[in-house]
């Protein structure tokens, strides 16, 4: 087994999860220009809802579906109770609300029976057994299904934003809320749907990540900030950027860990190297690889 194919394939697997997690950031920013710092906590909430349901005897697939519905409703509730009151307020105030929400949700998670310790899903029967061997690198069925499930959701939302009437409406609201309202668009409805959809994708990312690497509150909430370089690199308002950024960051992390940890004192290059690349890209493209360049009249 050669090292490079192994690192590349492992990077694609984790990169697809990063891309799916980053999609939640993109959905909210694309419709409202708000960055949601509570996204990692919503990811953890979805994952642990699914885990609790499986512990109660529910089928894994059904538990995952219910968790996605639950975080869909949670996203809608957050928007209705907290964010709708902030419409028209300075963006920094809205961001501080999401930071406060992150602390509150994480605190609630720590009060549950799963607040401490590490947990893992029982692998569904359909995902046991032999996987696939690519270029001498074995991939389990869990990894393969995780990648394809992530890419399917990403492809679905790409089509939604580019082709559906509601997706185009959400983009219009992001560009100019007042103009959208003047033609009868319900900005509140668009914001609610954006937060709800972000919650749905967060649960999907949490369940897939939990199936691949286990469940701890720290690792799941941390993914929300860990994918922040993904959305900045790809472009905050680009679904395609989330996909490309996720894959790039996942691959770069693994390449750095495989080739640089051995020569850098103390190692840990997987945590730093993606940010170095991010800074280099932003010096050339401040809006990210696929972000929309905005030109303001002065």
Question: How does this model look, in words?
Answer:
With 298 residues, the chain is mainly α. Helix content is 71%, strand content 2%. A two-stranded antiparallel sheet has the order 1-2. The longest helix has 30 residues, at 3-32. The protein is globular and about 60 Å long. The model has no long low-confidence stretch (mean pLDDT 85).
Number of strands: 2
- β-strand percent reads under 5%
Compute the number of helices: 12
Pattern of helices and strands: HHHHEEHHHHHHHH
* Backbone shape: globular
Strand count, sense and barrel status of the largest sheet are: 2 strands, antiparallel
Please give the alpha-carbon distance between the first and last residues: 58 Å
Question: Which regions have little confidence, pLDDT < 50, spanning 5+ residues?
Answer: none
- Helix content estimate: over 70%
* Structure class: mainly alpha
Instruction: Using the CA coordinates, give the radius of gyration.
Output: 19 Å
Average pLDDT reading: 85
């Amino acid at each position: 087994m050669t090292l490079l194919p192994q690192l590349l394939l492992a990077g694609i697997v984790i990169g697809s999860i990063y891309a799916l997690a980053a999609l939640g950031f993109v959905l909210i920013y694309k419709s409202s220009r708000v960055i949601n710092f509570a996204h990692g906590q919503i990811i953890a909430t979805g994952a642990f809802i699914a885990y609790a349901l499986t512990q109660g005897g529910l089928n894994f697939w059904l538990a995952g579906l219910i968790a996605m519905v639950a975080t869909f409703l949670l996203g809608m509730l957050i928007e209705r109770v907290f964010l709708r009151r902030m419409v028209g307020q300075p963006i920094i105030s809205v961001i501080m609300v999401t930071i406060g929400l992150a602390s509150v949700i994480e605190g609630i998670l720590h009060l549950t029976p799963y607040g401490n310790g590490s947990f893992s899903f029982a692998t569904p029967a359909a995902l046991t057994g032999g996987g696939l061997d690519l270029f001498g690198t074995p991939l389990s069925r869990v990894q393969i299904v995780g990648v394809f499930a992530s890419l399917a959701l990403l492809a679905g939302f790409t089509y939604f934003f580019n082709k559906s009437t509601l997706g185009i409406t959400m983009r219009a609201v992001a560009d100019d809320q007042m103009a959208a309202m003047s033609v009868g668009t319900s900005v509140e409805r668009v914001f609610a749907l954006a937060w709800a959809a972000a919650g749905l994708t967060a649960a999907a990312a949490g369940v897939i990540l939990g199936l691949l690497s286990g469940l701890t509150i720290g690792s799941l909430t941390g993914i929300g900030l860990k994918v922040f370089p993904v959305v900045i690199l790809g472009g905050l308002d680009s679904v395609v950027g989330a996909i490309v950024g996720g894959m790039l960051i996942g691959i770069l992390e693994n390449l750095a860990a495989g080739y640089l940890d051995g020569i850098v004192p103390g190692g840990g290059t997987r945590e730093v190297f993606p940010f170095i690349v991010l800074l280099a890209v932003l010096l050339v493209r401040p809006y990210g690889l696929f972000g929309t360049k905005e030109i303001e009249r002065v």
